[in-house]
Structures are given as C-alpha cells and as structure tokens.
Design brief:
mainly alpha; 0% strand
C-alpha cells in the first residue's frame, strides 16, 4: 500500500473515530435520563455504522474501478510491447 493510500486510510479512520467520540461525549454531557441517553447513543451508533458502511461501499467501488482501469492499461501496454517485439524480430 502506498504512503498516499495509508494517509487516506488513516484520515478516514481518524475521522470516523473522532465523530464517534464527539457524538458520544456530547450525549454524555447533555442533561438526559439514562434510558433516553442510551437510546440516543444506540441510534447515533446505528447512524454512524450505516454511514460508514455506505462510505466503505463507495470506496470499494472506486477502488474496483481504479484496479480495472489499471488492468486495462497494463494489458494495452503489454500488447503494444508484443507488437514491437514481433516487429523487431521480423
């Protein structure tokens, strides 16, 4: 994995972790009853998990597109190389 990919992954992980901690801290310091607070935390956790799944699905789709494009380009380069080698050997 390249440094750029690692940086993006670390950023996304930090963003998600920070979001979860921020929402949880906000709820813990709000004046609510225990039941309501637990329900709110559960609801927010479900929302965050849903958003995270959507982001991961989107990222996987983009990664798949990038890999597919790279494979197509590599195939074209290999084919061009074969043609050049055939031309040189004739």
């Amino acid at each position: 994995m390249s440094d750029q990919q690692m940086n993006k992954k670390s950023f996304i992980e930090g963003l998600i972790t920070g979001g979860i901690l921020g929402v949880t801290a906000g709820m813990l310091f709000s004046p609510k009853s225990g039941k309501k607070l637990r329900r709110d935390i559960s609801d927010k956790t479900d929302d965050i998990m849903s958003d995270t799944k959507w982001l991961l699905k989107k990222a996987k789709g983009k990664a798949s597109d990038i890999i597919s494009d790279a494979a197509d380009k590599a195939e074209k380069i290999i084919e061009e190389g074969r043609k050049k080698v055939e031309g040189l050997t004739k």
